[in-house]
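Re-run with default settings, no changes from the original entry. Doing this only to confirm the output is reproducible before filing.
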Amino acid sequence: MTVKMWTEWVKFVGTKCGPRIAAVFDFSYRFGLRASEVLRLKRGAICLADATLYIRVKSTQASLGAHDQWLKDVLKRGYRVQRMRRHKYVEECFKIKEDGYIFTSGPGAKNKHLHYQAIQRHCKIQVPQFLKYLKDNGKNWSNDLLSFLHLYLR
């Protein structure tokens, strides 16, 4: 999938679902992580000193590479999106806490991290709307978009 198409998808999800869900997709694409790996990321897994993201789920590490500055900005300022609220756009921000899971679940939840089913639910709702949005705006999309997004629909 092209970077342009992925950026369009993340922006669309941000306007519909908010910054936390959009950040899950952005982390997944930028660092090549599966949804379950992104959701289990802890703040302690990010080492900005040596520009490394330690993914304890796979017991491996990934270089931040070109995304080093992006991640520094997200950690400092939060992940921001323009979201539609009551027929107008407002800026919303998702702040990453200093410790614990990056994507936390709500109070009283069984897991302390956001569950995969929450992301899957948003995908099932947003993918058809996104494809309609692309069609209505005359933008072309290819089957690689569907195959990638299908990973979240299983």
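The mean pLDDT is 81. Helices lie at 3-17, 19-31, 35-39, 68-77, 116-136, 143-153.
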